[in-house]
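TASK: fixed-backbone design
INPUT:
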């Protein structure tokens, strides 16, 4: 899992990258929580998502948004962070020109950025959205949502109320041509403290389903 430095819109960005042995492997990009509240690419949920895609043979990247760790620049209200994510995807695609598809995963603030990236990059085939802050940020840009994915939420999350997540899920489920799965993790808080195993079991089950469907096509 080599440390990498790649060029972003506001300077160098720091990441961790696993390159698959398969020259035709799919790609996965994992985005971390809010930079101003301690979010980094070493967050436990981000690390576990990274490891899950790695074990499944993906080439996968997690990185620090601008102003975090050794990444240059300053926090930019999500606008610059979306540009950082696009630059990270560009970097991966440059090194994996034969990749057949792209997945994106994000936790909290990272989920909001990930779902914005969906709208800009039609090659993204699926998403894992963990605890998207539906009460704090506007998700109306998902009109329509271009890819199928899963939204996972803890039923004891006091930062993002269940009603806001359910409203987002129901809105997305009403759209034709895509399938939005929703899983609520029992007794889990926003950070999935003491619930990481349940969270990752949910992610694994969803990936089992989606990737087996792709193989059947």
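OUTPUT:
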């Amino acid at each position: 899992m080599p440390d990498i430095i790649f060029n972003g819109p506001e300077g160098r960005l720091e990441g961790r990258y696993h390159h698959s042995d398969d020259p035709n492997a799919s790609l996965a990009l994992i985005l971390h929580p809010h930079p101003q509240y301690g979010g980094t690419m070493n967050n436990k949920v981000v690390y576990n998502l990274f490891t899950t895609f790695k074990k499944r043979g993906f080439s996968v990247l997690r990185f620090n948004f601008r102003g975090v760790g050794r990444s240059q620049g300053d926090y930019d209200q999500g606008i610059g962070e979306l540009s950082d994510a696009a630059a990270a995807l560009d970097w991966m695609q440059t090194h994996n020109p034969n990749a057949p598809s792209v997945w994106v995963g994000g936790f909290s603030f990272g989920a909001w950025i990930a779902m914005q990236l969906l709208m800009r990059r039609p090659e993204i085939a699926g998403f894992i959205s963990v605890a998207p802050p539906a009460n704090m940020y506007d998700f109306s840009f998902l009109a329509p949502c271009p890819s199928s994915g899963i939204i996972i939420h803890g039923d004891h999350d006091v930062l993002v109320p269940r009603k806001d997540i359910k409203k987002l899920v129901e809105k997305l489920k009403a759209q034709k041509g895509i399938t939005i799965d929703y899983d609520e993790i029992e007794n889990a808080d926003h950070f999935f403290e003491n619930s990481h195993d349940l969270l990752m079991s949910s992610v694994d089950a969803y990936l089992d389903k989606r990737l087996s469907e792709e193989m059947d096509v």
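COMMENT: The mean pLDDT is 96.
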